[in-house]
Amino acid sequence: MTGLFAAQTAAVVGHILINILIAHSGLGIVNALFVKCLIQAEVAHNRVAFKRHQTDIEKYIRNFSSKGKIKKPLFNLAVVSVAHCAFQNRIAKESSVNAIVEYAKNKFGTSESRFINALLRKVCRENAVFHAHLPSDLQKRWRSEFGNDFIMQAEKCLSQESEQHFRLRKGFEIDGFQAEKIAPDLLSEFDFYKTCEIDKCLESKCFCDGGIYVQDAATGVAVEVLKKYVSRDKGRFIDVCGAPGGKAIMFHDLFPAWHISIGDRSEKRHERTKENLVRLKIDADLITCDASSDKFKEKYDVLFADVPCSNSGVFRKRPDVLYRLNEKTLNEIVQIQCSILDNVCDAVADGGLLLYSTCSIESVEDTFQIKKFCQRHNEFELLEERLTLPTLEHDGAYCACLRRKTPICNEGNLLGTYRTLDQCN
Q1: What would the DSSP string read from start to end of 4-36?
Q2: What is the structure's pLDDT at 324?
Q3: What is the pLDDT at residue 335?
Q4: Confidence (pTM)
Q5: In this structure, what DSSP letter does residue 240 have?
Q6: CB contact at 8 A, 186 and 221
Q7: N or C: which end of the chain has fewer CB within 10 A?
Q8: Backbone torsions φ then ψ of 36, nearest 5 degrees
Q9: Three-point CA angle 257, 187, 311, nearest 5°
Q10: Can you say how many angstroms the Cα of residue 398 is from the centroid of all Cα atoms in its chain?
Q11: How many CB atoms lie within 10 A of CB 270?
């Protein structure tokens, strides 16, 4: 089921239901628009619920069909329609079914609409319950790589809606809302919390004064790994794919005397970076650049490459990513990551650190990517790498910390060999 067609189909279903509700509600125009916004929000919510349960829903439909294989467009409509009937609660199910069946009749024909009608009536009559499962091909791959315990943990994560997480900066206290500390075993330098009162959190004095940054606890692992290898009080730091600034801000909080630069190819994303820096009262240089091709004029003591990735580690929040993890997509992403690494490594000063990170748990984006980079660039040595698998308390992530070796010189000429900082001291 292609993501584009599924999204288009879900949008059609949502549009039909919005119009039906408004037409039969007798509401004024203002209230009608308000209801439309509510339904659109619910449609968006249902898409997330649908993706969490897509594998089980597809299995249910295939078992229901007596004719075996269903044509793809009709199957796509069936999947999103079943998800809608199973998870929405703002419109009477009878009205929903009637609207979807009428659409199916106009779009595909009488026979197809009868199939949709029988399917949805069965779902409603039985109050069908769907369970969260990983896609079968992904489940097989991850079971081979991470084991059965992880598969059970992953599907437990997938079955529950993700709570809102945030980092509380040192020197601040939570005020005006309830929150619970999480992931104490994952991090030692940063304090993370979860809350069911995110609206109150974002309106709190603590947030407005710069004491809170909304992010997942897994984002702190890379910065804590980096801290082990930073030996100086001052230096030059850059996050080359850094908008909206979360990890650079974490580095600043550990090393406030360092000069911070944040790069990103999107000026629009940098608008959020500016907002965050102003609220948190942090000075940093913002650079608009394409990390895969633009050359950096400066040399940096620490260069952070938090690269674009498949997002496979954040499926708790974005279950749709599970259905985009095909070979073609992964290969394209890996090539982008490779281009960024090969381009930005020249901007790392001798003896400086290169920190590579993703929010993916796919080995081709993580360990294999770094292994191939080191084969191409023997001037770098791998100091440490760490894979964090997702749990109920945090997302998944990967990071690798590398150091550029210092060239051995003879009368000012590079010999093409390198030594580590330990050998230089």
Answers
A1: HHHHHHHHHHHHHHHHHHHHHH---HHHHHHHH
A2: 87
A3: 98
A4: 0.84
A5: T
A6: yes
A7: C
A8: -60, -40
A9: 95
A10: 13
A11: 21
So what's the pLDDT on residue 26?
A: 41
Closest CA to 85 of 70, 96, 73, 98: 96
Do residues 103 and 19 lie in contact, with contact meaning Cβ atoms separated by under 8 Å?
no
Q: How far apart are CA 71 and CA 108, in angstroms?
A: 11
Instruction: Show the tokens assigned to 302.
Output: 């620490």
Chunked into runs of 10 residues, the chain (425 residues) has average pLDDT values of: 49 54 42 44 61 90 82 86 80 81 89 94 93 93 96 94 92 96 94 96 97 97 95 94 97 97 95 97 97 95 97 93 91 98 97 97 98 97 97 96 80 43 40
Separation between Cα atoms, residue 331 and residue 417, nearest integer Å: 32
**pLDDT confidence of residue 414:** 39
Residue with tokens 């850094």: 242
What is the per-residue DSSP string for 140-208?
A: HHHHHHH-HHHHHHHHHHHHSPPPEEEEEPTT----SS--EEE-TTT-SS-EEEEES-HHHHHHSHHHH
Would you tell me the crossing angle of helices 148-159 and 136-146 to the nearest 10 degrees? 130
Phi, psi dihedral angles at 378 (to 5 degrees):
-75, 0
In terms of phi and psi (left: phi > 0; alpha: psi -120 to 50; beta: otherwise), the region of 42 is alpha
Confidence at residue 370, expressed as pLDDT on a 0 to 100 scale: 98
Tell me the HSE value of 13 on the side-chain side, using a 13 A CA sphere.
31
- Give the span between the Cα atoms of 84 and 61, in whole angstroms: 14
